[in-house]
Amino acid sequence: MSPAMRIACLQFNPQLGNIAHNLKRAETIISRAEIQDIDLLVLPEMAFSGYNFNSVNEINSHLEPTAAGPSTVWARSTARRLGCYVALGYPECCAHPASSPLGSMSRYNSAVLVSPKGNVLVNYRKHFLFATDELWAEEGREGFFSGDLPDGLGRLAMGICMDLNPRRFEAPFEKYEFAHHILDSKADIAIMPMAWLTSQPAESLVDQAQVPDAGTLRYWIQRLQPVLDQGGQGQSGETIFVACNRTGTEGDACYAGTSAIVGVSKGNVKVYGRLGRGTEGLLVCDVPAPGKDSATKQE
Checking DSSP bridges between strand 189-193 and strand 239-244, what pairing results, if any? Predict the structure, then answer.
């Protein structure tokens, strides 16, 4: 471990249903960046399948068995090669015994976390579903994830995209479900693979590719208000929030990019780094490991 924790977000534009292309694109971005000594690499929600599937029939051929499909294979291989933790999203299928009251198959919008040795530590199932998810996926019943990371990286909270919002946009805005989970779990770091949409026109992904979507970043930070009010409950008093989003378009869906690594403590927000709305690349930031100082860089 270096004196700080080095986190990388891989933001790119996956093609819907083209797993081979998307795997190759991610490898190209990593190889060009020549990253070294990172502790954690985060990729977007449903990183290699693409996101905007409109039915069970559309997504069925792209579903992956629990922590055992091409996304997890890539994560394990990359984790061993780079010597870091890897987190990414994928569409999960889980077969049940014939006697199960759930039926023969469940489908989830999921994320895995893999250790530097290539071991799967977490298989998290998205708890709050977006409207697109509801067309094919079940809600994860276990709630948001929290757990301890080895190697001095502290306590982790994990969600996926819509988990940051009020449940079904029906819960009161001020309920702040995921932010309170961060506080309750005393998380030092919260990671969130995303396929977050933008309200800006698709042309802005080209015309303003290097410019972050300020409204999106502002909203993410707003959804962490209880952490800002009370301060991070982890060892350092600061919670590192890692939002790894995708960019590009899929049909009418236009994604906001703007992957960001943000520190939130009582009364203070520090943006360690963020990418543009249309950028494909790696954001690499050095942030405080619990109780330590920090520096920042982008590659």
Answer: parallel
Given a cut of 90, is residue 285 above it in pLDDT? yes
Distance CA 225, CA 267 (A): 9
> Where in the sequence is the domain holding 214, given as residue range(s)?
4-296
Q: Pick the catalytic residue from 84, 92, 126, 280.
A: 126
The model's pTM: 0.94
Give the CATH number for residue 228.
Answer: 3.60.110.10
Rounded to 5°, the CA angle 5-10-13 comes to 165
45 is catalytic: yes
> Residues 9, 93, 161, 254: which is the catalytic one?
161
How many domains are contained in the chain? Answer: 1
Strands (E), 100-219: 105-114, 120-125, 145-149, 154-158, 189-193
Closest CA to 68 of 57, 60, 59, 76: 76
297 a catalytic residue = no
Q: What would the 3-class secondary structure string for 162-187 be?
A: HHHCCHHHCCCHHHCHHHHHHHHCCC
3-class SS of residue 271: strand
Tell me: the pLDDT tens digits for 256-280?
999 999 999 999 999 999 999 999 9
Q: Has 94 been annotated as catalytic?
A: no
**Do residues 80 and 115 lie in contact, with contact meaning Cβ atoms separated by under 8 Å?**
no
Would you list the DSSP string of 14-67? PPTT-HHHHHHHHHHHHHHHT--S-SEEE--TTTTT-S---SHHHHGGG-EETT
- Is the separation of the CB atoms in 275 and 9 below 8 Å? yes
Pseudo-torsion of CA 89, 254, 22, 211, nearest 10°? -100
At 239, which helix (H) or strand (E)? Answer: strand 239-244
Identified catalytic residue from 45, 64, 138, 177: 45
- CA–CA distance, 40 with 42 (Å, rounded to integer): 7
181, pLDDT greater than 80: yes
